[in-house]
Predict the structure.
Amino acid sequence: MENPENPQHSHSHAHPQTASVADMAPQTAAGKVLWHFTMSLDGFVAGPGHTMDWMTGVSFRPGLVEEYAATTGAVLGGRNGWDAFPDADADAVYGGAWKGPLFVLTHHPEDAPPATGVTFLSCDAAEAVRIALEAADGKNVEVFSPTIGRQLLERGLIDEIDLHIAPVLLGDGIRLFDQPGGAPVRLEHLDGTDRTAAVNVRCRPLTADTGHSVR
């Protein structure tokens, strides 16, 4: 996989504060393939060098991590993101709230250091998601990889894209979807009555030194 991913740190920085903004309906376990990330307002799912410290202090609605942990049967990630956190294993997913099979897709599994609960695959992305779905045993497969997610999206193998938009602008890092010269991919909302409505986000900059609003 060419771009770095970070499967084991998807929500490990989630804090217990109550989120003050509306959130999507609770996730259900229905054998779906989910492309799932917390994303910055400008479209990055990891900072430069796979950093995730930008998620510190970001709040989620109570029970969100537990909800995804309960509905996930298997996780599929990429090698570059995995290598960015060499001490991790499957127990690190969702901060340890989730237990299950984690698959890492790689072109060179022979040099991957063993990790508890992790299976390194060297195959086509479609075959990797088939293996993950079988292991998920009726629950969802979460794809924690921009590169793999794009490949699956092109083949019509993504059932749902779940994004939690953090109030931060990174300006650099790993984008969720980066396809220069490609055609737009039209989506529809799964919550609410208008499936094509623009999502309105209103934010205010905070001062760097105090963390308070500039106004």
